[in-house]
């Protein structure tokens, strides 16, 4: 073990928030050992801005609660911890742990219970990476280095403490942590880790709770180096263990969304981790929509059912919380609304709670080369920067263009129908014409018709054989009770007595 001066490692109390100093001071005054440990110390030495700080002590969780009272809450079953609230800050306080006398593990070797208290030396041996195993005591201004961690930081090497295969079996999530730290810190992974880190080993992640895997995936999405870690997930075989139906390839849409997420984090903007899940699951969602549309479902119903199916399938790997599922489905549904909005609903749509997320999603699709957006991402981008009067003009112009497009579509459809009716049939049939569709005859044709003997039903006895007028012809048809079209005029329904209707009841309703 090396005891190093804090100033030599680039550490000072001026870099620390008052919340962590308050926790360390309170435990020290109560007679316990207390150190700052983990990623906070590592990031300070690398010149980074730590997100949070963790403390470690020889006080048990119940003793920590005695020190801080109502400010402390004990959590965890597999790994019991104390959460101490200092103002608005939350400090995680762990107790020194020792190797268990009889480890409670799963069939694959994963530790199920880890609550054996020990000394600081024993606690060091339980930590995963050397760069996370430095103990900083701010008031004594010393750093305890048990494993040449300072040297690993200088050499930018990510090294596991102990046998890498055994450490991965104890906690398979360490495989995710390995890639996360390598991408975030731009460190080289130690050769001993690479020797055992094979795609077959990632099967151990099946033993990890889907809830915990979701939490770890969120750390990957929000660390600010998402675009760097995605290829590593594919290379080491972890992609297939995290994402059920997403092909192990980085599309232009996924890559652009990853870069956009990293940029927002680097400039201090907030992000919703569920947004990237919406990006990842977009293609499986579209494929599932096509399945339901082919079965005859309405588009809205197909989208709703496809969203449920895709998220249910993903829950077998990472269980997305209900509120995040709702967010994802609303972003997907917003795509169809933004694509073809009704003119009278455009302004209301721009004020929708999910408009911003849906718009960002559509704009990313459009910039990634997705032509199905029809340029509406750019249209909405311009619309948001217009004044009230300019927005009205833009909506009016959009309405005219929309009507023109519909007319063109209708003309194309009607033209297609007309073309189809002009196609010559394979079998020509003789056209039967009724009395009303009879072609007009010329004078010569009419004269020859009058001189010719009448065909069909004969005249009454004593009637002339030629030149029968139209009235006589109708009279003959009425006597026979059937015309040339085959209608029976003697049918009872045509002979029933008509009843005069009282129109007042039609206008004002029945009176009683």
TrEMBL record:
Instruction: Please state the Enzyme Commission number of this protein.
Output: 2.7.7.19
Q: Which UniProt keywords apply?
A: ATP-binding, mRNA processing, Nucleotide-binding, RNA-binding, Transcription, Transferase
Polymerase A arginine-rich C-terminal domain span: 296-408
Q: Region annotation Disordered: residue ranges?
A: 399-512
The signal peptide here is none
Where does the tRNA nucleotidyltransferase/poly(A) polymerase RNA and SrmB- binding domain lie?
Answer: 187-248
Name under which the protein is recorded: Poly(A) polymerase I
**Lineage, please?**
Bacteria, Pseudomonadati, Pseudomonadota, Gammaproteobacteria, Moraxellales
């Amino acid at each position: 073990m090396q005891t190093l001066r804090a100033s030599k490692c680039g550490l000072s109390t001026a870099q620390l928030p008052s919340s962590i100093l308050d926790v360390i001071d309170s435990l020290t005054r109560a007679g316990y050992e207390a150190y700052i440990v983990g990623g906070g110390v590592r990031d300070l030495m690398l010149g980074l801005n730590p997100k949070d700080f963790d403390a470690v002590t020889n006080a048990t969780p119940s003793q920590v609660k005695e020190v801080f009272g109502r400010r402390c809450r004990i959590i965890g079953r597999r790994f019991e911890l104390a959460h101490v609230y200092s103002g608005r800050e939350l400090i995680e306080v762990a107790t020194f742990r020792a190797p268990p006398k009889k480890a409670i593990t799963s069939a694959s070797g994963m530790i199920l219970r880890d609550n054996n208290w020990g000394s600081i030396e024993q606690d060091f041996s339980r930590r995963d990476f050397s760069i996370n195993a430095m103990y900083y005591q701010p008031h004594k201004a010393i750093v305890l280095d048990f494993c040449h961690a300072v040297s690993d930081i200088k050499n930018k090497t990510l090294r596991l403490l102990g046998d890498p295969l055994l450490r991965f079996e104890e906690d398979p999530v360490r495989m995710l942590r390995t890639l996360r730290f390598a991408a975030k810190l731009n460190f080289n992974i130690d050769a001993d880790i690479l020797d055992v880190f094979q795609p077959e080993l990632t099967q151990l992640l099946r033993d990890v709770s889907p809830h915990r895997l979701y939490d770890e995936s969120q750390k990957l999405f929000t660390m600010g180096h998402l675009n760097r870690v995605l290829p590593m997930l594919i290379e080491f075989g972890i992609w297939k263990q995290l994402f059920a139906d997403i092909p192990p390839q980085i599309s232009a849409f996924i890559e652009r969304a990853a870069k956009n997420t990293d940029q927002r984090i680097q400039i201090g903007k907030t992000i919703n981790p569920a947004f990237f899940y919406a990006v990842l699951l977009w293609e499986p969602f579209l494929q599932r929509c096509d399945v339901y549309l082919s079965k005859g479902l309405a588009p809205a119903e197909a989208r709703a059912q496809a969203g449920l199916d895709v998220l249910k399938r993903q829950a077998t790997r990472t269980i997305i919380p209900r509120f995040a599922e709702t967010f994802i489905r609303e972003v997907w549904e917003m795509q169809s609304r933004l694509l073809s909005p009704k003119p009278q609903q455009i302004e209301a749509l721009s004020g929708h709670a999910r408009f911003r997320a849906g718009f960002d999603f559509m704009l990313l699709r459009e910039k990634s080369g997705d032509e199905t957006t029809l340029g509406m991402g750019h249209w909405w981008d311009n619309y948001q920067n217009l004044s009230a009067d300019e927005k009205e003009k833009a909506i009016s112009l959009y309405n005219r263009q929309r009507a023109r497009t519909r007319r063109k579509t209708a003309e194309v459809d009607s033209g297609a129908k007309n073309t189809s009716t002009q196609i010559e049939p394979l079998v020509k049939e003789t056209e039967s014409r009724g009395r009303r569709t009879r072609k007009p005859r010329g004078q010569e044709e009419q004269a020859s018709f009058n001189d010719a003997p009448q065909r069909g039903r004969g005249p009454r006895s004593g009637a002339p054989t030629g030149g029968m007028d139209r009235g006589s012809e109708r009279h003959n048809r009425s006597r026979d009770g059937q015309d040339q079209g085959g209608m029976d005029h003697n049918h009872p329904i045509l002979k029933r007595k008509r009843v005069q209707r009282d129109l007042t009841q039609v206008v004002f309703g029945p009176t009683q």
